[in-house]
Specification:
By secondary structure, the protein is an alpha+beta fold. It is 66% helix and 10% strand. It has three domains: 88 residues, no CATH class; 91 residues, Helix Hairpins, CATH 1.10.287; 167 residues, 2-Layer Sandwich (Alpha-Beta Plaits). The chain is extended, with a radius of gyration of 32 Å.
């Protein structure tokens, strides 16, 4: 897997180099790409995309603070130091790098625990070998004197004590490493959750939603007992234009909170883009899913949307919803398309309502994107 990842990374770097070389040739400028690669090689830096991004920013002097910190790394910067710069100045890399670092630490702790277990097994095997040899000597035909027996007992006592002491030491070390491993696993889970959380609304993001949708069709039972609800805030584009994005962001946060509160443990709530939310519901009939969607819709329609220190009211706010059962679709893409069609039916019927895909006319109709997506 790491060889594939490294190969992909190098191909990305290659594409970037070719683009920069072509641009330099057109503009009659020195080949900046080649200069950067040469400097990276001179400093012993691996040709990773995130490293190239740092060197490019330094060569073009796009960030004075970055240039100053980079100069302090010396002529042979470590990958760890470069990654710290990347996390600080290039946020697109920081989350993935945090998760990767945590995964590496979990892997290291797991390897150490396995090594400790192997050492314990080796110690026990050696002790057993001593027991077998001693037993064989005692069973021999010649009689053993009291002095010899005492020496044998002394050797066995020392070996036993050594083995027990080694066992206690390894057991303590394993407990410590296991505790570290559990802490790192908790951190890793938190980092992964962060990477799959929408930063504005604090519900799941599109990446997490896509993963959840794929899970539905990887298991036959999931298909039978899951449904998708798509929800879209009515007239949100005009609302944003009228009141501004800061107010719009507050409304998005409130809507996400209300949906999560009303859905509770029954659904997986994600913001899939702009003013659209998706809820994957598990273990309910179509009527149950419809009632859940209506519960959320009614709560939002009746809520007071007070924003700012003056608690200015910006309501009423309404949402339109579309529902499709997973069993009515062939795969995740088909399920999303059918729930989206039901959502459009709610929009075209006057908004602030819930529509079931199963109740739509079978003939179908073309989407009016100016009406729906421009809403």
């Amino acid at each position: 897997m790491s060889q594939i990842a490294n190969g992909t990374a190098m191909r990305i770097v290659g594409v970037v180099l070719n683009m920069l070389q072509a641009a330099s040739a057109r503009e009659g400028k020195p080949d900046l790409a080649s200069m950067i690669v040469a400097r990276m090689r001179q400093m012993g830096v691996t040709g990773l995309p995130r490293n190239y991004e740092i060197f490019y920013a330094v060569e073009t002097a796009t960030n004075a603070d970055l240039c100053q910190e980079f100069s302090q790394l010396g002529e042979r910067p470590t990958q760890q130091a470069l990654d710290e710069l990347s996390q600080k100045y290039f946020t697109s890399n920081s989350r993935d790098q945090i998760v990767q670092t945590a995964q590496d630490q979990v892997s290291a702790n797991t390897s150490e625990i396995l090594a400790l277990m192997e050492r314990e097994q080796t110690s026990i095997e050696k002790f057993c070998t001593i027991l077998d040899k001693t037993a064989g000597g005692l069973d021999g035909p010649s009689a053993l004197s009291r002095d010899v027996l005492q020496k044998v007992v002394g050797i066995m006592a020392a070996a036993t004590h050594s083995t027990l002491e080694q066992g206690r030491t390894i057991s303590k070390a394993m407990q410590e490493k296991t505790a570290e491993l559990e802490a790192m696993k908790t951190k890793l889970a938190r980092y992964k959750r962060l990477a799959e959380t929408d930063p504005l609304t604090r519900v799941w993001n599109r990446r997490a939603f896509d993963r959840r949708m794929a899970e539905i069709y990887n298991d036959g039972r999931e298909v039978m007992f899951n449904a998708l609800i798509l929800a879209d805030i009515d007239g949100f584009k005009a609302f944003n234009d009228r009141h501004g994005h800061p107010v719009g962001d507050k409304v998005l946060q409130m809507v996400a909170h209300l949906i999560s509160q009303k859905v509770g443990q029954n659904g997986f709530v994600a913001r899939t883009g702009g003013e659209e939310f998706a809820i994957v519901v598990d273990g309910k009939s179509e009527n149950g899913v419809f009632e859940l969607a209506e519960f959320a819709r009614t709560a939002i329609a009746q809520a007071e949307f007070a924003v700012g220190p003056t608690a200015q009211q910006f309501g009423p706010i309404s949402i339109s919803l579309g529902v499709c059962m997973a069993a009515e679709a062939s795969d995740a893409e088909d399920l999303y398309a059918k729930a989206d069609r039901a959502l459009y039916a709610s929009k075209s019927a006057g908004r602030n309502r819930t529509s079931l895909f199963s109740k739509l006319p079978k003939g179908g109709f073309a989407k009016n994107w100016l009406l729906y997506k421009g809403d």
